[in-house]
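Tutorial, part two.
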Amino acid sequence: MRNKLFLIISFLFFSFSVIVSGQKLVNSPYARFNLGILEPAGSFRSLGMGGVNVALRDNSSLIFSNPASYSSIDTNSFLFDFGIDYSINILSDGDSKFFSDDMNFDHLFMGFPLTKGLGIAVGLVPLSNGYYKLLEDVKEGDPDYDPVTGEYSAFHSGEGGLTNCFVGAGINLTKNLSAGINMTILFGQIKRINQFSFDDYYEVFHNNTTEQLQINGINFDYGLQYTASLKKDYFINAGISLTSGKNYKSNYENLSYVFTAYTTKDTLSYISDNTTKTFLPWSLRAGIAFGKKNMLVAGVDFISTKWSAAKINGSDGYLADTKSLLFGAEFIPDKFSNFSFLKRIEYRLGAHFNDNYLILNGEQIKETGITAGIGLPMSRSLSKVNLFMDFTRKRGSFDNNLHIENYFTTGVSLNLYDSWFIKRKYN
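Running the prediction step on this input gives:
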């Protein structure tokens, strides 16, 4: 056990450094606004089921979107889950297509019981990604060409993102009802650059604007789950969780200046604001799941977030309320088969329909996606390797000068389940 603990702690520190310093380098122009691209929340088991998780309870995996689920962790067990994903984004503006891809570390979870019916979990998960790089050359004859300004190049880039670190507990209040709470520490920064360089490089002033937003603070998630056992090992679960609205400490800087080919700089404006707080809104999640123990589970989740109430420096007018509907199912032919590996595999399907929190040119971006996944069991253990695939289309109409993104993500995670803290009977 001591060797396992050393490996877990070593990997925990390594993964923390990777998550803090790294980011997903998938190019999306929609990352230019608000907090960037919001990352889907959930373990890879959940993401393979369309993101359904609010009403799920499982003794061998962690479901952090509803902390009440931590009460289902087995006594004397230890859970550890980490994953990486690979994403491809194919962007189309109606005339041409652009391609980008990247692989990155995704999440890290760890959970264990304090006593029967009381579980603890900690983890790191990304909240948003602000990476993009855009270059536009405007020449004579182009729609945006102005003879007064002449030909020019516009370069836009962004980097950084936000990460949540959480620690939570879930407890059984009664035989059927459980409750939980997460304390989440949000941290990170997003930096954006907009630069305009004119073709008459040596004779004119060029323009550069740099924005930087840093956010940090503590918030809480609350969750409830009710489970009822039916005849012949069937069950039905209901869950609800709430993330409260929160004012976070933030530091916003905006510097705009002109420069020449001879490095002469002249500041046009400079804003430094470390007193105005960033307000992120409440989010309500509700779900129901039905199934047969150790064989089948199907569920549906509804999520609503009041993004129009958010206050984010540099994002005025781009925020819209969101509603999401998620569907998913998991089937295991024979979880305890002694002879067939294929019968012990967990098969998953799902779909999701989402409003994006970004509104541009009077139009809110829409998202639809389909998912699939499998859980490959390890020999003589509840540990497994989870794989998932997600195809999501983000739609903005060409008539409003927007574009379509076809976003394909696949990921693999190692979900370790081990029995700890058991005294040896024999040496």
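Residues 1-7 have pLDDT under 50 and may be disordered. In part three we will examine how such features are distributed along the chain.
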